[in-house]
Request: fold
Amino acid sequence: MSATLWFVIRRTLQVIPVVLAIAALNFLLLHLAPGDAADIIAAQSGGASAEFTAELRRSFGLDLPLYQQFFVYIGRLLTFDLGFSNVQHRPVFDLIAERVPATLLLMVVSIGFALLIGVALGIISAMRHRSWVDSVVSVIALLVYATPQFWLGLMLIVLFSIMFGTLPSGGMMTIATDMSVWERAVDIGRHLILPSITLALFYVAVYARLMRASMLEIYTFDFVTTARAKGLSETRVGLVHAASNALLPVITLAGVQVGHLLGGSILIETVFGWPGLGRLVFDALLQRDLNLLLGILFISSIVVVLANLAVDLLYGFLDPRIVHQ
Amino acid sequence: MSALLQVEGLSVQFATDRGPVRAVEDLSFSVAAGETVAMVGESGSGKSTAALSLLRLIEPAGGQVSAGRILFDDVDLLGLSSRQLRGVRGSRIGMIFQDPMMALNPIFTIGWQISESLREHLGLSRRAARDRTIELLQRVGIPAPEQRIDQYPHNLSGGMRQRVMIAMALACRPSLLIADEPTTALDVTVQAQVLALINTLKDEFGMAVLLITHDLGVVWETAQRVVVMYAGRKVEEGSVSDVFERPEHPYTRGLLKTARLTDDRAGPLVEIPGTVPNAFEMPHGCRFAPRCAQAFARCEDGVPPDIKVAVGHDVACLLAERAP
Amino acid sequence: MKSFLHFWRRFRRNRAALVALFVLLAITLIAIVGPYVYTVDPFEMMGRASTPPSKRFWLGTDVSGRDVLAGLIHGARVSLLIGVAASLCATLVGLIVGAVAGYYGRAVDNILMRCTDFFLTIPSFVFAVVLIAIFRPSVTNVTIAIGIVSWPPVARLVRAEFIAQREREYVLAARALGMSDIEIMIRQILPNALPPVIVVSSLLVATAILTESGLSFLGLSDPNVISWGYMIGVGRTVLRLAWWMPAIPGIAILVTVLCINLVGEGLNDALNPRVQRR
Ligand SMILES: Nc1ncnc2c1ncn2[C@@H]1O[C@H](COP(=O)(O)OP(=O)(O)O)[C@@H](O)[C@H]1O
Ligand SMILES: [Mg+2]
Reply:
């Protein structure tokens, strides 16, 4: 199984240049932003002299040639130093690290839900090609594609929190201290329902359409005919032989879309007051905290790279052909 | 006479954007138990369509059997429920295809794929199915079957993959094997080996084989009888020796000449002039008439009837009427 | 002209796309002439705050007593303008990158495609947020930001088309005739590669409108113009009291995007006919 090991190593090493490129992009954006750290501090200390600003600049290494600054920047990144939020007066990394778990929870639950339902709907649509189920799923997918996710979230709040009053309209947990672990989990789960459905619905549509198309294509392959020629039932041919092969592109897409999911998550978190990265973005925007925004861009890019890596490794595991090429 | 497989007046069509394509028309032939029947014809002549129709596998591919009967052991397969049909597929009739790479599921091990048949039809346990699979792999000449059984199709060579397909098709000891161009996609060197294997297993299992090919050399070496197809119709049928030695249909003659299997081996390599008619502009009468050097007016009037020229030797050509 | 008729006949066959096209034309018409016909200033306080739809204000007023209908009409302009402009922007970049990569192949292709893949890994919405935050929200900046984050898929598609075309006989002939690379790319290959690109660009308009609405919902919209996303953001603050306020602009987005997607599908059917076997 050394082929597998090699595959894992090779694929993991490919991450390094991408991370470097992400760092370079952030560095570039940092320099494009009007005013550097020295200007900001000088401004905060109330109209400092040009000399004082220049002094600050020197102490931050901002007078060095650009490439040297870049190395310093990379060095900082290696120690998880993403700079300082001059608005919140805390290291950017700490601010982000606090919020990542909530965002990940929302993303993982949503994508799991979306994969489960989307793939199931896709399989049904393909196996009942051109039936009413197929048409209904297609029409719903079209509508969902056209719906702004954050708006859908608002409308769900109107329906389920305001009109029916069954679900909480925002936040991650009820403010109460006397909850057992189990009660706490149920509480978070209840808060999770609306945001995750909102976030997942778009991907349910995407995966359903892709799974359907993928299945229909697999159905034209010879090995499906072989499976039928073996005397297997149409259900078994569809679920075991066609669906398993059709799943591979869906998983790839799910990996590629992690970045997109993160974008959606930011809006949804804003709508539902979910205490994740999205809320952090919203606050950073209100306060024009560029350092924090750039830190969020950096970390979310890294999250995407790692997610893609995970999916590729999983793919290599699922499709026996990959490792060997 | 009761043949193992008796096909009567089989017609198959595909619905396309430009209207229906009649891929097979009024096809009749039979296969006796233990016999090898070859079906030959240029590509596009409807051989695969006919073969798939026998197990009603053409419907999922968009085809439609519009007429005919397919009697297998005197039961019309066209009248079976899907459950009954599944009992025939893979159990009493096995099938192998042209390209074993495409015909095997890439993400399951070959052992799993063979066992699936055994478990489905014979209800074997996982263990028993695995043991039987190893036996089968050994039987089809795959070395080190205990290791191979857990490999994936892409780990095997083309010839090995076709052997796996054969093992899978024969897992439940069918009485008929349908082999659709089983060697076309293989290296020349392994083609003979695979054919030899099919022949050996045929004798050993006492099964009949419907061998689809466009290689007349293969027909000569392996088959007892031959069905010649042209543009969806059978043009000639007979014992291999009759048809090869006294071909009656001009198309058969052309084929034999092209393959240089007739006596004029020394002559130049001849191609049959012209091309197969477009599926949407099929001639009214004999479909070969536009390419036939000996065609005359009546050839275009109507489909020529099957004419018996010798015992078991039929030809659909008006020229045969005049023969003594 | 003849080929246009041919195209139209094929397009017409898709009923949904045909209806969507007419709705879309109506929306465009409203966006263009609406503000001259319905001359209410969308920023001016016209009446009491947060009133439901009534005879006077067909779609009610917002939290500051501004006329929602006026906002909707002016918002159509911004949405369509940014949607179309951003899509053109992304298409242009994608065309250049994809064409050069596909035509030259080898190292050039390798480098350009790595860049493309890199941009695909950057979470596009976050990237757009950061870009606009740095450069300040204006119609131009929002358009450029959306263009910057949307071109990679176009580049990939164009590259694939160019690779498929570059060894064709007509290209080899053009080269033998001594045409320059640029001439061959633009005059010879591009027209053949265009149909799928047109489809993708039309769908990009829809995505861009959705992205723009998200951005302005977060407050990243040009403060001088009103947009649908901004209206949803305003309405959100009174969700409990006046749910229709955010609902109305959302429906406008939904209908517009839906129609664009349907027209895109129709274009696809008409421009890229595939043999439908199943
Ligand atoms: N799925 C299909 N849809 C439409 N036409 C088909 C389909 N499959 C085969 N045909 C048509 O049926 C005819 C016979 O094809 P086939 O049975 O594959 O021939 P052969 O196996 O002899 O090469 C061809 O003319 C082909 O165009
Ligand atoms: Mg064939």
Remarks:
- Residues 213 and 245 of chain A are 12 Å apart (CA to CA).
- The mean pLDDT of chain A is 87.
- The beta strands of chain A are 84-85, 90-91.
- Chain A touches chain B at residues 219-234, 241, 244-245, 248, 318-321, 324 (CB under 8 Å).
